[in-house]
Amino acid sequence: MTATRDRADTLPTPYVPPDWEGAIRAFLAEKEKRSGSQRTAQEYARLLHRFFDGLGKTPDAVTTAEVFAFAYGPGPSGRQPGPASVNVRLAALSSLYGFLIRMGLMDRNPCDRVQRSRQEPPPPRGLDREEIKRLLAAVPDTAVGQRDRAIILTFLLTGRRRSEILGLRAGDLSRNGAVFYAYRGKGGKVRRRELPEPCFSAIVESLRARGRDLQGMGPEERLFDVSAHGFYMNLRRYYRKAKLPPGGVHVLRHSAAKLRRDVGETVEEVSRFLDHANLAVTTTYLRRLEGEEDTGWRKVAALLG
Asked: How far is it, in rounded angstroms, from Cα 32 to Cα 301?
């Protein structure tokens, strides 16, 4: 009996392969929670499923060459990817492998030796006061238009990011003298700030135009019944109607920062307004937005006569 038990104790433990699909789901859940952006998690999910389903391999069997081919190869459309597409593909894969290494499921990242594509960021552009007036005038006086006008005003007066505004729910609003709103910022941290009165009034009016009452809404009901893509497409139409250059939603955040500087706020105040992690980020942001002042050319010109 003892000999039989001893032999059983020395038998090797059978290998149980990791639950790779479960690990990927856990990674995506963490990504959404940490970034505060459902859109980022959805885009990563799309890319990861396309990579692993097309390859037919589990994460531990992937090679650096296969990562390179996926990142730099043509996508489903057959076109060669631009720098932004290459980099987001690599970001999705590298982030996943970083998670698997932290979880003890992998000891290497096949993305480490694949270089990112060099990408020049487009110059930021903010609308000035007259352009904003033209944009708002281009929004139709319909139920949809009133909703979109409320969204645009909230962008311009709060400076929040797209997911932070379009994700607002009735339960995020509270009143303590002024009206406040809670939002999940970058990194997943929940913050609470005053909601400017024009934004609150526009939200209430837009809800009323759609036959809804803020007081009767459940806490999980969204204030704006439009997807990020739907609002983006509407905004593009308003830009065209106002005869403004084509732009995306982020132009409104740039405009909010520009307006704060125009009324005399300091870089430190704009940094707090934008929820930037440090002042250097804001300084670079504003330098690219406003242009860098040259204080020496007059002396040189005088020297040259």
From this structure: 54
The model's confidence at residue 32, banded by pLDDT at 50, 70 and 90, is confident
Q: Is residue 72 part of a domain?
A: yes
Residue 178 pairs with which residues in a beta bridge? 176
User: Which residue range(s) make up the domain with 245?
Assistant: 129-290
pLDDT one-digit tens code per residue, 138-182: 999 999 999 999 999 999 999 999 989 999 999 999 998 899 999
Q: CB burial class (10 A; 0-12, 13-18, 19+) of residue 13?
A: exposed
Q: How many helices (H) and strands (E) does the chain have?
A: 14, 3
* Helix H or strand E segment including 190: strand 190-194
Q: What is the mean pLDDT of residues 173-195?
A: 87
Q: For residues 135 and 141, what is the distance between their CA atoms, to the nearest angstrom?
A: 13
The reply to whether the predicted model has a pTM over 0.90 is no
